[in-house]
Amino acid sequence: MVSQRERNVDPDLAILLVGASRAVADALQLALEAAGIDGMRSAFGFVLRAVGDDGATLTDLAQRLAVTKQAAIKVVDEMERRGFVERLPHPGDRRAKVIAPTERGRHVRATALAASRRMERDLRRAAGDGDVDALRRALSAFLDQHGGLDEAVAGRARPVW
Question: Residue 57: which of 99, 120, 1 has the closest Cα?
């Protein structure tokens, strides 16, 4: 049987992007496991990025993730049980809570960021700085065209649930 590569057939852009996304998710999961962090789900990473270092209200979190508050609270409840986030009093509204990363949640973010930087370094070694810089520009242009660049610049992404 002749492979696609041998037939010189290029996969479509969507398949390349989805495949890259899967490879990134797998690499991040391996990095977390190597760091001794268990109980993580990929959805939790999106929440940790969305709450940031300063935390976020449930309303803000739901907006950032483009989900209902009911969907966001289900994930937050599970993350709180597993020790990744905590609910703190809101400094300006006693009725509201701020969802903030715990020390364990901050460790997840630091581990994932280090793994992301390592993936980029490895790609730079394999493809060269020029190609990686061009890839970054192309992906930024793509996000600018289709929405999502502002979120990427802020260090967040909406999950594909």
Answer: 99
Tokens of 70: 């009911």
Domain with 112, as residue range(s), is 11-153
**Structural domain contains residue 4:** no
b/e per residue 88-121 (b: at least 16 CB within 10 A): eeeeeeeeebbbbbbebbebbbebbeebeeeeee
pLDDT at residue 1 in the model: 61
Output the CA–CA distances (angstroms, integers) from residue 71 to 1, 66, 138, in the order listed. 46, 10, 32
- What pLDDT sits at residue 94? 85
Count structural domains, the chain: 1
Measure the CA–CA gap between 2 and 9, rounded to whole angstroms.
11
Q: What dihedral do alpha carbons 141, 126, 128, 154 form, nearest 10°?
A: 40
What pTM value is reported for the model? 0.85
pLDDT tens figures, 122-156: 999 999 999 999 999 999 999 999 988 998 898 88
- CATH number, position 106: 1.10.10.10
Residue 161 lies inside a defined structural domain of this protein? no
